[in-house]
Design goal:
Undecaprenyl pyrophosphate synthetase; 6-stranded parallel β-sheet; 9 helices; alpha/beta
Length: 247
């Protein structure tokens, strides 16, 4: 029997029911590497191929926003050699991938904090993605040195510094969202997590209040276009009520 192709699943998608914004928690690189008797960084490099596959499919489907959780504020607690390797690999992959992403009219940006990062490194990676900032296609968010709780704290600090007491007293969710890293973007309709873990891990905590969650046992380096389509097909079966009653 021939292996199923993602092209076989495409006709099942309903374009009108595709999510506008998808957040992805890429988990399982380390376990995948361990299964292959290789160091953790080998798994992270393999996982980069899955990012490319998902982005390619996103362009093909006309998705509007994709957010990848690449490095969290908690990841600094990992072994120093692994952290150093992750930072180096990220910059290397950007150098390789940005020309093609730019060609595909994709707008790439970092969401996260520069706190704890070497200023030269931060400026270098920002300069690399800035080459895409005239593009008008899909927005690709790289959640890097990102933490959902820190995002909310930084938003509060910025808001308090810019608004009067009277203005703050009239604060609502729409205004507050304008101070988040994802300013101007719709909240994620769907959050996908690989490797079977059942938690958000400090990812888009404010924005995910009504996101649909899709958990797969597939380890991230094995997550391909077929797995992405399975998640989208599952999402299309959801009845999203945003707190309202079921019809």
């Amino acid at each position: 029997m021939a292996k199923q192709s993602y092209k076989d699943l495409l006709p099942q998608l309903i374009k009108e029911r595709l999510p506008k914004h998808i957040g992805i928690i890429m988990d399982g690189n380390g376990r995948w590497a361990k299964l292959h008797n290789r160091p953790h960084l080998f798994g992270h490099r393999a996982g980069a191929k899955s990012i490319r596959a998902v982005v390619e499919l996103g362009v093909e489907l006309g998705l509007q926003y994709l957010t990848f959780y690449t490095f969290s504020t908690e990841n600094w607690n990992r072994p120093a050699d692994e952290v150093k390797g992750l930072l180096k690999m990220l910059k290397e992959r950007l150098v390789v991938e940005i020309p093609e992403l730019h060609k595909q009219n994709i707008y790439v940006q970092f969401i996260g904090t520069s706190v704890g990062l070497d200023p030269d490194y931060w400026n270098e990676v920002q300069a690399i993605v800035a080459k895409t900032h005239t593009n008008t296609g899909m927005v690709l968010n790289i959640a890097f040195n990102y933490g959902g709780r820190l995002e909310v704290i930084e938003a509060i600090k910025k808001l308090v510094s810019e608004k009067t007491i009277d203005e703050i007293s009239k604060l609502n969710t729409e205004l507050f969202s304008e101070y988040l890293y994802t300013k101007g973007q719709p909240d994620p309709d769907l959050i996908i997590r690989s490797s079977g873990e059942m938690r958000l891990s400090n990812f888009l905590l404010w924005q995910s209040a009504y996101s649909e969650l899709y958990i797969t046992e597939t380890l991230w380096p094995d997550f391909d276009k077929i797995e992405m389509l399975k998640a989208l097909l599952d999402y299309q079966q959801r009845d999203r009520r945003f707190g309202g009653r079921k019809k």
